[in-house]
From TrEMBL:
Transmembrane segment boundaries: 20-42, 54-72, 84-100
Name of the protein this chain belongs to: Uncharacterized protein
Keywords per UniProt: Membrane, Transmembrane, Transmembrane helix
Lineage: superkingdom: Bacteria
């Protein structure tokens, strides 16, 4: 049952305040994977555990998921909207091929620590750009919601 006061408010509009640049988005899965491997190796080094860090498909899966979600904020050129799904799928499939690859600690740390600094710098620049001027765009065009006229309810009379 619905009350007379309840009405459909129409579609919910999704807005993105600060879209990520295309190049930063393309580098995101590689940087995230390098940072995770680098800090894992650094932690193993500090704890005195020896051995190589193993690159798994879970790393690529997380990177692919992040890539797919952040891809919604990209202002794509005409006809390129499917590229964000394709790129995320390529990252995921590549993860299956590199699963189980041993990465030497020096390589992981050498790539991971500067990668973390680069991600922090990208985040800082992205936020600074947002403070100067927020970009708001809609992911779907506005739709006019037309409601059907309500039918009058029949009067109920008590005949006794």
């Amino acid at each position: 049952m619905t009350s007379q006061n309840s009405r459909h408010t129409g579609g919910v509009q999704c807005t993105v305040r600060r879209p990520l640049p295309l190049l930063a988005w393309a580098a995101l899965p590689l940087l995230v994977t390098a940072v995770v491997l680098g800090f894992t190796s650094l932690g193993e080094l500090l704890l005195g555990a020896s051995g190589e860090t193993v690159l798994t498909s879970a790393h690529a899966g997380a990177a692919a998921g992040l890539t797919a979600m952040v891809g919604y904020s990209i202002e794509w050129p005409a006809g390129w909207r499917k590229a964000h799904w394709t790129y995320a799928a390529v990252i995921l499939i590549a993860g299956f091929f590199v699963h189980g690859t041993n990465v030497p600690p020096i390589v992981a740390i050498t790539l991971g620590v500067p990668g973390a600094a680069l991600l922090l710098r990208m985040t800082w620049l992205h936020r600074a750009a947002g403070k100067r001027g927020t970009v708001v765009r809609e992911t779907e065009p506005k739709r006019r919601v037309v409601q059907a006229p309500s039918m009058p309810r029949p009067a109920i009379t008590n005949k006794a």
